[in-house]
Write a structure and sequence with these properties.
Structural class: alpha+beta
Number of helices: 15
Oligomer: single chain
CATH architecture of the largest domain: 2-Layer Sandwich
């Protein structure tokens, strides 16, 4: 029996049709054609699919997809099954609670982007999607962060750090490079913030590294790395991460929002726009992994004392 057969049987039962002849008359086709379609020996034309759908008060897309699946080669049938499942879900989405249709609409937007091998998220969804990516990592995460103070009491913290900690516990090797500037390191309060951020990450099982912008800029490889990101629309303060060497995430813009309705609002930094991609050429050109081999400019964090010693060297060399 073909997948179209139950629909024809349903028409016979609904309209009390006792024979294929009566069914054929109802569909406006010859009796032999009705018989062959019912037995799965003939695929109905689009206009017949539409007529079947109308007689059963169904969406014509459902019948058209079933007909396309029947015509598809064996290797492709699974994809038509997925398409039919998606349509079935869309056709039965309840209007309430309002969260459900909105969620389905968001999924639809994501599906339409998949063909480009790129997904873009904005606002709160951007911050939430960054956490979801960490949750799906299986082997490794390599990250570079210039906007490192986003970890300091901002919208992304502590959910992102907790997701990193859970990933580290399940065996994911996480390396994160914080890019610091000489101007930032002139302020003792900012130095304390950097130490706290790195200590938090270190305690969470993350292999934390740091580098100073003024030194990194001497490296042609680092400058090319940043230029490649700029060409893809990355934010000036680069935040990027590669997951399992197969999918890449980077921030395209940031924004500040005020948190609080009563009293003095607290300004928080959020990722305004985030891009996720798995295009092979971008994975190759934008991979942060080579940065960790730049041992002349990139240092592994082992604790506050070692960091402050390296910071003192930087200040002395630039004075």
């Amino acid at each position: 029996m073909s997948e179209i057969s139950p629909y024809l049987q349903a028409i016979k039962e609904r309209y009390d049709l006792g024979s294929d002849y009566a069914l054929a008359e109802k569909l406006g086709i010859a009796q032999p054609d009705a018989n062959l379609i019912r037995r799965g020996l003939k695929i109905p034309k689009p206009e017949i699919c539409i007529k079947i759908a109308k007689l059963l008060d169904k969406n014509p897309v459902e019948l058209l997809l079933i007909a396309q699946k029947a015509k598809a080669p064996s290797a492709a049938k699974q994809y038509w099954t997925l398409a039919l499942t998606a349509v079935d879900v869309m056709l039965h989405v309840p209007k309430n609670p309002r969260y459900i249709p909105r969620k389905v609409e968001a999924i639809g937007r994501e599906l339409r982007q998949l063909e480009t091998q790129t997904l873009t998220y904005e606002g709160a969804e951007a911050n939430a999607e960054a956490v979801r990516l960490v949750q799906t990592a299986d082997r490794s995460i390599d990250a570079v962060m210039e906007r490192w103070n986003i970890w300091k009491s901002e919208a992304l913290y502590p959910n992102y750090l907790l997701a990193n900690q859970v990933a580290a516990k399940r065996g994911v090797v996480i390396r994160r490079l914080l890019v610091l500037t000489k101007e930032q390191m002139q302020q003792e309060a900012v130095v304390d913030d950097a130490v706290q951020v790195m200590d938090d990450q270190h305690r969470s099982g993350i292999n934390i590294f740091y580098g100073f912008r003024e030194q990194l800029d001497r490296s042609p490889a680092f400058r090319r790395f940043e230029d490649d990101y700029r060409r893809q629309g990355a934010a000036t303060d680069l935040n990027a991460a590669m997951f399992d060497r197969e999918i890449l995430i980077f921030s395209q813009s940031y924004g500040q929002m005020e948190l609080g309705v009563l009293g003095t609002p607290t300004p928080i930094t959020m990722i305004n726009q985030l891009q996720i991609t798995w295009k092979p050429d971008l994975l190759r050109d934008l991979d942060p992994a080579p940065l960790f081999d730049m041992t002349r400019y990139v240092f592994e964090y082992s604790g506050p004392q070692g960091f402050r010693t390296e910071l003192a060297r930087l200040k002395k060399a630039s004075s």
